[in-house]
């Protein structure tokens, strides 16, 4: 399963972030890292079900985790 970075909305409360994480777990995901600089977390999630994460009311964005290179 691929890993995704989930960013919650700027106005999301800690409880709402927990709801988003629970939603991910309930739909087959496994939480990886929890970020402190942004309101978000990484999750290993089934590729064919990623739309359930994107449509969650407290989620701002979902993007596939990948290596970033600089020149």
Global shape: globular
* Major β-sheet profile: 4 strands, antiparallel
> CATH-wise, what's the superfamily?
Peptidase S8 propeptide/proteinase inhibitor I9
Low-pLDDT segments, ≥5 res:
none
Structural class: alpha+beta
CATH architecture field:
2-Layer Sandwich
What is the CATH top level name?
A: Alpha Beta
Query: Between the first and last Cα atoms, what is the distance in angstroms?
Result: 29 Å
The share of residues in extended strands comes to 25-35%
Number of helices: 2
Q: How are the strands of the biggest sheet laid out side by side? A: 2-3-1-4
Number of beta strands: 4
**What is the N-to-C order of secondary-structure elements (H for helix, E for strand)?**
EHEEHE
Any overview of this molecule?
- With 71 residues, this protein is an alpha+beta fold.
- It has a single domain (3-64), classed as Alpha-Beta Plaits (2-Layer Sandwich).
- It has helices at residues 14-26, 50-54, and strands at residues 3-8, 30-35, 40-44, 59-64.
- Strands 2-3-1-4 form a 4-stranded antiparallel sheet.
- A hairpin with a 4-residue loop joins strand 2 (30-35) and strand 3 (40-44).
- The protein starts with a strand and ends in a 7-residue tail after the last strand.
- The relative contact order is 0.33.
- Belongs to the protease inhibitor I9 family.
């Amino acid at each position: 399963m691929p890993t995704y970075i989930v960013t919650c909305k700027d106005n999301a409360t800690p409880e709402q972030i927990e709801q988003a994480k629970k939603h991910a777990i309930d739909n087959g995901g496994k939480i990886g890292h929890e970020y402190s600089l942004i309101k978000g977390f990484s999750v290993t999630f089934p590729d064919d079900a990623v739309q359930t994460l994107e449509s969650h009311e407290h989620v701002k964005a979902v993007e596939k985790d990948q290596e970033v290179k600089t020149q």
